[in-house]
Amino acid sequence: MNHSVTACAVLLLAVILPAQTHDGATQYVWVLDSGAQTSPAPVLRVYSPTGAELLQVTTVPGSGQARALDSGPDGMLYLCRGGLVHQLDTLGVATGVTLSPPTGASNAQDVLVTPLGEILVAWGTTDPTSAVTRYDATGVQLSNFADTGLGHPRRIAHRSDPADTTVYAVSRNNQTVVSFDYTAVAPTLATVVDLTSNNVGPIGLCIDTANDDLWVTSDWGDATIIGCVDLTTNVFSTAITYPPSGAAGLTAPAGLFYDRFRRLYVAGRSSNSGTAGVYVFEASSPTTAPTFLASWPRTGDAPTNVTDVTLQVSQMTTCSPTETTGIGTRNILEMGANNRVTFSSPETPGMAFAAAVSFRWQASVCGAVYQQGNLEDPAGTGLPFGGSDPRGLPFLSDDFFWSSVAVIAPGPSPLTPPINPATNLPFNNDFTAFGVGITGFLGDLDATGNEDGFIDLTFFLDPLNALGTDGMELTLAWVTFDLTEPALIGFVSQPLCVVLRNPDASPVVVNLPGCL
After folding, report:
1. 8 A C-beta contact, residue 191 and residue 176
2. Within 270-376, where are the H helices?
3. Could you list the pLDDT tens digit for every one of the 516 residues in the chain?
4. CB atoms within 10 A of CB 289
5. How many whole angstroms from its chain centre is CA 29?
6. Which long-range contacts (CB under 8 A, 24 or more apart) does 95-101 make?
7. In what order do the strands lie in the sheet containing 263-268?
8. Are 510 and 321 in contact (CB under 8 A)?
């Protein structure tokens, strides 16, 4: 399985060069509190990244049981309730757009938004009424796939790669994990793993794209486990036996979500004498048992019956150089040109942060062979980052698809930190003693809430790898964290995808005008 880091964090990206405004984000945790089984009155609860309740949405559209919730890259929400899926705006208010079942299907089970913005909905509690349907953002049905092998598809999952068209589903009736190509004219259902012998009644599913794994929740009354499916071998293994140590209230898990900082969020119901809430685990590697971190809400009203959890982006303005191609406009960063990506944030002055970069190799095995060059330097200089910081960002590669730039042992930065006006002392620039589990450049935000760390490719030339570097994808990202609770992640950005352009391979034409 692929164990490389695929993304780390950013709250605001400003770029010096001709540029265009784009969206970045922080993240908020939305929780579906389905309410009582009889006469349900669902509530949507919004938590900060450290578990404080920020908002309650009590006016929820539709009727019947609310079963699932998901958020798209634009922050819009989709709620499965009864026989419909309702679109909600970024504050949880119904837009009036609904997704109806295809002929023969009923009971909305789960919903997800693909990286391309299309919406997939799982329907049905019986074999004849089970289907997975694809819609556009306006609710128009694009395709439908019905198969008895779906048998009550309680949850569905999809990789974060826009080029990937495989959807995974857990069949509650058949006790299987299945998959199919949702864009195929005549999809073929494949069994990923049969969980019958494990006595797993699958009701929760999410994907860890970095490690190519699926997380699966088993319903209480069956095996009391949360497990992991290695998609390179299709082997299922137990990761958590519930209730786990430190989380006695997690006796009836439901939906779950795995974020890019290796945090696993598990919805806990009140069934089986459970305590309703969200249970957060650190699941940094499929080979290591997840560690329980906290249960939410840490402040706010106690929920009644939590059945699903999702992370939502919150929009803010970013800038990036752009280039127009035959398939549209894309963000770029040109090697050897006046390109500088500067990291800054509107967060609290003095807030600790980490920043990192990920590279995505070309998927085609026929692509140009990448040779050891300026990007991958055994001396560890790597990409210049953070001005005079001599550590750079050493480039780590694996033999699969993703590679990452990260500082292996952050330690104290040699950059002089700004003065904290509250104490007249320099901000801290060494967080190793706090056990912060994020690789990347570490530092403090200054008194204005900004940080002067940057990635600069002005003097970065690599003609040896002109074809190998041209077209590589960079993901720039950023995260803040609270030093009083270093195990919990703070505000996280929506990663910004930028295409590396090497002018030694082909001419680069940057769009005008730039950001104002």
Report:
1. yes
2. none
3. 322 222 222 222 222 223 332 333 356 899 999 998 788 999 999 997 778 898 999 999 999 999 999 998 778 999 999 999 999 998 999 999 999 999 999 999 999 999 888 999 999 999 999 999 999 999 999 999 999 999 999 999 998 777 889 999 999 999 999 999 999 999 999 999 999 999 999 999 999 876 789 999 999 999 999 999 999 999 999 999 999 999 999 999 999 998 766 789 999 999 999 999 999 998 876 678 899 988 999 889 999 999 999 988 654 445 567 888 887 788 787 777 765 555 444 444 444 555 545 544 443 333 334 333 334 333 433 444 333 333 333 333 322 223 333 333 334 444 445 555 667 776 554 544 544 333 333 333 333 334 434 455 666 666 766 776 677 766 655 555 555 554 444 555 555 667 778 888 888 888 865 443
4. 14
5. 12
6. 97/137, 97/138, 97/139, 98/139, 99/133, 99/135, 99/139, 100/139, 100/141, 101/131, 101/133
7. 253-258, 263-268, 277-282, 291-296
8. yes
What is the C-alpha to C-alpha distance for residues 308 and 124, in angstroms, rounded to an integer? 18
pTM of the entire predicted model: 0.69
Helix, strand or coil, per DSSP, at residue 260: coil
Which one, of 298, 314, 297, 319, lies nearest residue 306 by Cα?
297
Count of other CB atoms within 10 angstroms of residue 108: 29
One of 3.30.1300.30, 2.120.10.30, 3.30.460.20, 2.30.40.10 is the CATH number of 20-313, namely 2.120.10.30
Contact criterion met (CB below 8 Å) for 151 and 168: no
Residue type, 327: I
Please count the other Cβ atoms lying within 10 Å of the Cβ belonging to residue 205.
24
Helices (H), 25-140: none
Of 230, 243, 242, 206, nearest to 286 by C-alpha is 230
In the three-class reduction of DSSP (H, G, I as helix; E, B as strand; rest coil), residue 253 is classed as strand
Query: Which among 26, 31, 125, 117 has a CA at the least distance from the CA of 73?
Result: 117
Q: How far apart are CA 98 and CA 137, in angstroms?
A: 10
Domain boundaries, given as residue ranges, for the chain: 12-19+321-501, 20-313
Residue type, 409: A
